[in-house]
Specification:
Blueprint (H helix, E strand, L loop, with lengths): L1 H4 L6 H37 L2 H7 L4 H44 L17 E9 L4 E9 L5 E15 L4 E15 L2 E17 L21 H13 L5 H35 L4 H27 L5 H24 L16 H8 L1
Antiparallel strand pairs: 1-2, 2-3, 3-4, 4-5
Amino acid sequence: MLGRIAGKGLDFYIIIEFFFVNLAWILTLAVPMAVLIAVLMAFGRMSSENEITALKASGVSIFQLLKPTIMFGIIIGLILFWFNDQMLPKFNHRARLLKTDIARKMPTMNIQEGVFIFDVPNIVLKAAKVNNETSRLVDVVIFDESDRKYITSILAEEGELAFSYEDEKFLLTLYDGSIHRMERRDESSYQETRFETAIFRFDVPNLLLERRESSYRGDRELTSAEMMAKVKEMKAADPPNQSRINVYLVEINKKFSIPAACIVFTLIGVPLGIMFRAGGLGVSGGVSVFFFLLYWICLIGGEDLADNNTIPPWLGMWSANIIITGLAVLFITRNLKGYSMLDLANLKRILPKKWRREHHK
């Protein structure tokens, strides 16, 4: 986003605020991954320096090693849940309002020079040059797909984009251009209309507020208690809007499932750290990225399935934790049964040089 908003006439403090309010949801995802990296590095270092071997020889089991790490995960998880439930909705709300204000004041901000823009439904737009301070466009090309029966293209030498507060739409005024229109199945129906000035009105849903009142809040801008109250209201309605209910239930479960990942990652981080016998950031980070991608894919896929009423919301949001916990149990069991551990020293030939140096530190 930095390249899209920096150097485009926005006040420096507005740019800082934009990134600050968007850090909240990034932090929500970064904390569980940071927990996994921390546990992997700690136990990988202990294993590589034979401290784990010494502890086992002294009668210390893996369950005793798990106790403090699980407590660590619980504490971080509780803090993260409070942040997700109480602070994140406020940050999301402010981020949405700020993004909308920027889009209204600088409607060309999301238009990149020479790049096709698909933000407008049924419209594809491209401009060779964009002046964000004056909202002026040069060499405008538009493909209108609103009517499937016709192929419509609009060309203009210049254009000006503005926001209309009266009807909550963007106005695109084009100068010195032409409209080319033809039926898809009849090439002989081609028509060309030239104009000096033409005005087009269109909605951009992902840039506008659903409602203009700042008091309106979407599902990601509410606490779990506020969403549960809305769910009860919708269930009491006749008929209930099950699709909307699922959206709220997904977000409620997500507020619990992501903090719970801090505990799940401590469970899998301990046996993995012991198995990989490497405490460097390179190896620990690489392993963490793999498992976090697995977690994130399950979370996103589960959210889509739950929103479509294919699976229950709780299953969609907790399936990632269930899968990772299953893998953790498998690795812990292997550790208890004394299976040979993975020593990355034997794999150093295939590791990048940077990783090899970190392994020997």
